[in-house]
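Submission checklist for the structure archive. All mandatory fields must be present; incomplete records are returned to the submitter.

[x] Identifier: Hemagglutinin protein
[x] Organism: Formosa maritima
[x] Residue count: 320
[x] Sequence attached
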Amino acid sequence: MSLNCSNNQLEILNVKNGNNLNFVNFDASGNPGLYCVLVDNVSYSNSNWTAKDAQTLYSDTDCKAKLQPKVFLQGAMLNPISGEENLMRDSLRSLGYLPTTSPYEDGLTCDVSVFNVTGDNAIVDWIEVSLRDALNPQNILKTRSALLQRDGDVVDVDGVSEIAFNLWAKAYYISFSHRNHLGMMSNVSSVLNFVPDVFNFSDGSIATYGSNAQTSLGMPNGVFGLWTGDSNISNQIKFSGSNNGSNVIKDFILADPANAFNSTTFSSMGYLNIDINMDGIGKFSGSGNDSNIIKDNVLAHPDNGFNSPTFTIISTVPNN
C-alpha cells in the first residue's frame, strides 16, 4: 500500500492504525505546517518513511502541543528572605491557604500532597496558560490551569510534568494570566510539539506583546515578572479614581467578618485577591500594606511619564 499526502497544506496527520508495516511508500513532504505525524512505531517510520519535511517529526505516543514555561510573579518576589532573592515566596502554601482546586474557569484539581514539596520546586500558586491562533492571537484556542513553582517553572497539576494541551502540535501564541497580576502574551507564535521546549519569559529573552508587559521593579537584576496589583480582576492596575484597586482592598478589609471594629488597619488572612504581595495577608494601611504596592507600580510604570497617581496600567494581552 502507498500513502501520498504530499503538498496538501496538512497540519494534522494521524496514521496510527496498527498496519503501518503495510505502507510500502509514504510521502508527507511539502506540508510546511505539519510538525507531527502520529504513527505505530517511530523507529520504523524514521527508517522507512523519509519523504517528509525537516520540521515534521514522528510520534507513536501523542502529537499534543506541550511546553515548559518559566514565569515570575512580581508580587511574590517583593522583599524576599535573605538568600532567596531569586525565588518567589511560597507563603500561601506554607500557611495552608493554597486551594487544591484551581481558582480559574476549568477548575482543575491537584492532590494535596503536591503542596508538601519544599525548596525551589515548592508551589507558589495557580496560574492560567492559554494557546492562541498563530494567525489571529485574539482567538484563544485552549486555556488551562497549571501550577507555578518558586523557581518560576510552570508545571502540570502533578507538580512536576510539562504543560500539555489537547491541541495538535503546531505554532501558537502563548499567554498567561493570574488572579491578581496582569497577564502577558508572547510577541510571536512558537511551534509547540510533543517534545516540550523551555520558554523562559523571566529573563527578557522572549519578546512579549505590547509595551512593558512585564516589570523588573523590585525584582533581582535581569529578572522580569508579571505586574502585580490587579486586586479586582479587571485587567488593569489603578491606585486612584473610580474602581481603583486600593479601594477594593479597603472595602474588603472593612467587610471582613473578623474585623469587629471595622478598622482600616485590620489585616485579613487567607487566599485573597487583595493580597498583592502573596504573603497570605491582605492589608490596606500600616507597614507592608498592599495598597502601597499598587501605588508604587503605578508611579514607576515606564509609560507614566508624569508619575501621576491617577495613571492606569492596562493589560497588554488582547481579548484577555
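[x] Structure attached
Curator remark: The first helix runs from residue 42 to 48. The helical segments are 42-48, 91-94, 245-255, 290-300.
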